[in-house]
Design a protein that fits this description.
The protein has nine helices and ten strands. It has a ten-stranded mixed beta sheet with strand order 2-3-4-5-1-6-9-8-7-10, with helices on both faces. The longest helix has 84 residues.
C-alpha cells in the first residue's frame, strides 16, 4: 500500500495555479550571441486584452508556431526565423521579437527583428506606440569593446552612455536617441554565463520602456504647474480678502470662492493622482533595473545610472513636486475654508445671542406690560364689582332699611380686590404649570 501523501483529496484554491504561472511568466528568454532584439510597447487605453491576443495569433496563420508560453495575458512562440513574446501589462502591452544572427553578419541601419513579419501586421497592433528599441547582442570576440570605443567621437552631439555590466562580464552602449523611431542598445557578451545575456537584454528593454512610461507624467506636471501657480495666487488673494472682510456677506462670498477653488483642486488631484503615482512606480523600476545591471564605470563615459541621474530624475522630481504642491494646496484650501467657516459660525452665533438677548428684553417688557394690565384688570374688576354691590345694596335697602348702600359698597371694594388679586395669581400659576408640562 502506497502511504505517500497526495493532494488529490485536498481542496485547492482556484487561483493557486494561476498565481504560480504568473510568477514564472516573464522569465528571461535564453539568448546566445549574436542576436537582434526589437521591442515595441503600446498603450492600450481601454482596448480589450482578448483583441490584442487575437491580433498576435494572426501571425500563426501564415507560419507554423511552436508555443513556449500560452496564456490569456502572455504568449511566446517560435516561428523559426524569429521568436515573439507578447505580454499585456496594466497600462501597456509589449511585443518583443528575437531574431538570431549569424556570426559576422552585418546589419543594415534599418534592420529589425521584425523583418520576417508579414507586411501590414505592425499597423494592425491596437493602441499607441510609446516605446520602441533595438538591442543588438554581439560577442566581444566578434565586436571588441575597444573598437566600439574607438569609433565614438568625443565631439559628437550625441552623448554616448557606456558601461561594463554584470560585474564586468558584458558591455552596454546607448545614447537613448531615436533612429528611424527606435532607440538602440549595443550589448557585448564578454564572459556572460547561462541566461545572463537574456537577463541583460530584458533589463535594457525594461529600462527603456519604464523610462518612457515614467515620462508620461512630465507633460501632466507641466500643465498642472501652470494651473497651480494661478490657483495659489487666487488663494493668496482670497486670504487677503478674508482679513479685510467686514461683514458676514463678505465672508460668505469669500467662502463661496474658496469652495470653487477646492472643487478645482480635488478635480485636478483626481485627474492626476494615478499618473503621478504611476510615474513614481516606473521611476523606481528604472532605477531597480539599472542596479541589477551591476555597472562598472568606463573612463570618460557616463554610466546608465549617471545618465538617468542627470536627464531622467529631474523630470521625475518635477512630477513629485507637482504632486506635493497639489496635496499642499488642497490642505491649505481645506484649512482656510475651515477657518473661514469657523469665523462665519462665530458671527452667526454672536448674532443669535444678540437675537436671543433682544427676545429676552421683549419678554421682560411683555411681562411688565402683562403685570400692568393685570393691575389695571384688578382695578377694573374691583370697580365693576363694587358697582354691582352698590346696586344690590340699594335694592336690599327696602327690605333692610338700616342697610347703607355706601357702607356696603365701601366694604366690598377691598374684599373684591383681594379675591380678584388671588384669583388672577392662581390662574397665572395654573397657566405656567401647564406650559412647563408641555415643554
Amino acid at each position: 500500500m502506497d502511504s505517500r501523501f497526495s493532494l488529490i483529496d485536498v481542496q485547492e484554491h482556484p487561483l493557486r495555479d494561476y498565481l504560480n504561472q504568473e510568477f514564472h511568466a516573464r522569465s528571461p528568454v535564453p539568448i546566445s550571441s549574436p542576436a537582434l532584439i526589437s521591442h515595441l510597447a503600446f498603450l492600450h487605453d481601454g482596448i480589450p486584452t482578448v483583441d490584442e491576443r487575437e491580433n498576435v495569433m494572426r501571425l500563426c496563420q501564415t507560419s507554423a508556431c511552436r508555443f513556449v508560453e500560452n496564456s490569456a495575458k502572455h504568449l511566446m512562440f517560435d516561428v523559426g526565423s524569429y521568436q515573439l513574446r507578447w505580454v499585456a501589462h496594466a497600462e501597456y502591452s509589449s511585443y518583443t521579437f528575437y531574431r538570431p544572427l549569424v556570426a559576422g553578419e552585418t546589419l543594415a541601419l534599418n534592420a529589425t527583428a521584425m523583418d520576417a513579419v508579414f507586411p501590414g501586421w505592425l499597423s494592425s497592433i491596437p493602441g499607441k506606440l510609446i516605446a520602441a528599441t533595438h538591442v543588438e547582442l554581439r560577442s566581444a570576440r566578434e565586436v571588441s569593446p575597444e573598437s566600439v570605443l574607438a569609433g565614438l567621437s568625443p565631439t559628437s552631439e550625441r552623448q554616448m552612455v557606456a558601461s561594463r555590466i554584470a560585474d564586468g562580464a558584458g558591455w552596454a552602449f546607448t545614447d537613448f536617441m531615436f533612429d528611424n523611431g527606435f532607440s538602440r542598445f549595443l550589448l557585448l557578451d564578454e564572459t556572460m554565463q547561462g541566461r545572463q545575456p537574456g537577463r541583460a537584454v530584458q533589463r535594457l528593454i525594461e529600462i527603456e520602456t519604464y523610462r518612457m512610461m515614467a515620462l508620461l507624467g512630465l507633460p501632466v506636471a507641466t500643465e498642472v504647474g501652470a494651473w497651480l501657480s494661478s490657483a495659489e495666487s487666487r488663494l493668496a488673494e482670497l486670504m487677503e480678502h478674508i482679513s479685510k472682510a467686514n461683514s458676514p456677506e463678505d465672508e460668505r462670498s469669500v467662502l463661496d470662492d474658496l469652495s470653487k477653488i477646492a472643487t478645482e483642486v480635488e478635480h485636478s488631484v483626481a485627474r492626476t493622482t494615478f499618473r503621478f503615482g504611476a510615474s513614481c512606480a516606473y521611476r523606481d523600476l528604472v532605477l531597480q533595473r539599472i542596479d541589477e545591471l551591476r555597472e562598472i564605470r568606463v573612463p570618460g563615459y557616463p554610466t546608465l545610472n549617471e545618465f538617468m541621474q542627470r536627464r531622467f530624475l529631474p523630470a521625475m522630481s518635477t512630477c513629485a513636486a507637482m504632486a506635493s504642491r497639489q496635496a499642499d494646496l488642497s490642505s491649505r484650501v481645506a484649512r482656510n475654508s475651515q477657518l473661514l467657516r469657523t469665523r462665519v459660525d462665530i458671527e452667526l452665533e454672536r448674532q443669535n445671542q444678540e437675537l436671543l438677548a433682544q427676545m429676552n428684553n421683549r419678554a421682560r417688557v411683555q411681562l411688565r406690560l402683562q403685570e400692568t394690565v393685570e393691575g389695571l384688570s384688578i382695578a377694573a374688576i374691583t370697580y365693576y364689582g363694587s358697582q354691582l354691590v352698590q346696586y344690590l345694596s340699594k335694592g336690599a335697602k327696602y327690605l333692610f332699611p338700616a342697610l347703607s348702600p355706601e357702607i356696603a359698597t365701601a366694604v366690598s371694594i377691598p374684599v373684591i380686590a383681594v379675591f380678584t388679586f388671588f384669583g388672577i395669581k392662581r390662574m397665572r400659576q395654573s397657566l405656567a404649570a401647564e406650559a412647563d408640562g408641555k415643554h
